[in-house]
């Protein structure tokens, strides 16, 4: 390009004065367009501001703690993925802007066998601690958390800051009342006695073990006081997954758990399979809430012999099977759950309480309502149930009809009656339930029980043990 052309370019670009200064005079000088001087330079033009695309940065200071993997963000939160296996002492901290996730099966520890005094020599223990307020989620049915025999979980939330185990959709806020089966669930395995022994092994021996439903893990052994840790103020939501036909993960699976394990203030919401299923063991549980379960809310099997007090179950309108189903091996080692102060609210999808073979269950201070057609059903000659201070408010109280085994067992107890439900707010005792005398001396039946002066799980409007840490029980507090 010539010098003249260069100057033209500069003139066009920067204005006359700047161009002359750069190019000089002489033959290359551009003639004046008018009398006297060059026209004034145009005023500077301020370009319009450029609006950058919206960017949501991670919350200030949010980073994944050691041992987890940063896998991006979900719903504006830092997504920290757990390792596939946890060995040693590992804590999920409650960090601002951080949520934790599972990728497939996540194991806590390795199976240490059924003999508490002689664990497998190469097996390693894991201890998972979860702080109050932590959220942990799975994205698919194959994502689940399993605590193996000999390892422990300490998930200790508070009423104000429960620990939430849920689905990715729940974290993203896209779930509704019918959202079920969006991730696997929680599986806890212990070394307490079970009834499903292989070969000639006997219940309570180290070799009496079984593989847990839906996962490749073993449970059972010789320690009825086994301690798998603590679940306190924990909510498990939108879980359950069919691994194979009739082989499913529950909201929470408690298999072979011993009495040293603490389970209290626990909710399972919208599980596609059972809410909680107990396979053998002697773990005791208190303050349990089941809402929207699509199969059985409480299910016991494999010789479960623990105690349960304060259990509140409310099915959703569009789903649910039995509220309480119990089965086991036949004699001599059968299930013997002891259950007190429960309110079972069926929505008419099946009978409320169904007892299968090999079960002897004792109910105290119970309220059953809404079964279709019946409140109580025995399905086997080896089924037995006892009832004291129980109120049954179904159109047909007993599946076997007048003179059947169910009616005979009910009438053999004390302070039992049938009639219309008067529950208020869906699950709070009304006049009819409050009129039933409570069973006296619960603590003498089982030292785990508290002595109370009412039946059912919720005495009255002032009894609010379920508030704050649960969801889905009232329209004002949806999940």
UniProtKB/TrEMBL annotation:
Biased region (Pro residues) positions are 39-60
Region Disordered, as annotated, extends over: 30-69
Q: Where is the signal peptide?
A: 1-27
Keyword Signal among UniProt keywords: yes
**Which keywords annotate this record?**
Signal
- Keyword Signal assigned to the entry: answer is yes
Q: What is this protein called?
A: Secreted protein
């Amino acid at each position: 390009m010539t010098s003249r052309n260069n100057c033209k370019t500069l003139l066009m670009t920067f204005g006359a004065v700047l161009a002359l200064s750069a190019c000089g005079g002489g033959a290359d000088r551009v003639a004046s367009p008018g009398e006297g001087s060059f026209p004034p330079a145009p005023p500077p033009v301020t370009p319009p501001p450029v609006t950058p695309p919206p960017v949501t940065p991670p919350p200030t200071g949010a980073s994944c703690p050691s041992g987890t993997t940063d896998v991006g963000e979900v719903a504006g939160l830092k997504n920290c993925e757990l390792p596939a296996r946890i060995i040693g002492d590992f804590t999920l901290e409650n960090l601002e802007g951080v949520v934790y996730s599972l990728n497939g099966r996540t194991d806590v520890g390795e199976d240490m066998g059924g003999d508490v005094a002689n664990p497998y020599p190469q097996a390693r223990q894991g201890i998972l601690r979860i702080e109050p307020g932590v959220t942990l989620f799975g994205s698919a049915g194959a994502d689940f958390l399993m605590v193996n025999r000999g390892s422990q979980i300490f998930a200790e939330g508070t009423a104000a800051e429960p620990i939430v185990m849920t689905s990715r959709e729940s974290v993203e806020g896209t779930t509704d009342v019918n959202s079920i089966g969006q991730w696997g669930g929680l599986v806890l395995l212990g070394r307490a006695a079970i009834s499903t022994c292989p070969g000639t092994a006997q219940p309570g021996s180290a070799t009496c073990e079984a593989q847990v439903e839906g996962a490749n893990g073993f449970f059972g052994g010789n320690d009825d006081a086994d301690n798998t840790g603590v679940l306190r103020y924990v909510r498990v939501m939108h879980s359950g997954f069919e691994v194979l036909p009739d082989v499913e993960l529950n909201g929470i699976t408690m298999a072979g758990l011993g009495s040293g394990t603490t389970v209290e203030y626990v909710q399972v919401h919208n599980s596609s399979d059972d809410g909680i299923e107990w396979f053998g063991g002697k773990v005791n549980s208190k303050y349990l809430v089941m809402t929207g379960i699509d199969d059985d809310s409480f299910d016991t099997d494999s010789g479960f012999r623990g105690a349960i007090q304060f259990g509140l179950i409310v099915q959703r309108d569009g789903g649910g099977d039995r509220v309480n189903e119990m089965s086991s091996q036949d004699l001599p080692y059968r299930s013997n759950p002891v259950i007190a102060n429960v309110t079972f609210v069926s929505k008419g999808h099946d009978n409320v309480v169904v007892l299968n073979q090999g079960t002897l269950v004792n109910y105290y201070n119970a309220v059953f309502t809404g079964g279709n057609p019946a409140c109580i059903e025995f399905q086997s000659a080896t089924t037995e149930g006892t009832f004291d201070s129980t109120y049954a408010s179904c159109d047909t109280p007993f599946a076997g009809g007048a003179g059947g085994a169910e009616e005979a067992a009910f009438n053999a107890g004390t302070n039992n009656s049938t009639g219309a439900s008067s529950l208020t707010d869906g699950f709070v005792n009304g006049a009819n339930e409050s009129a039933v005398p409570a069973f006296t001396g619960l603590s003498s039946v089982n030292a785990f029980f508290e002595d109370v002066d009412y039946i059912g799980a919720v005495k009255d409007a002032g009894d609010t043990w379920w508030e704050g840490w649960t969801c889905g029980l009232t329209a004002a507090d949806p999940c």
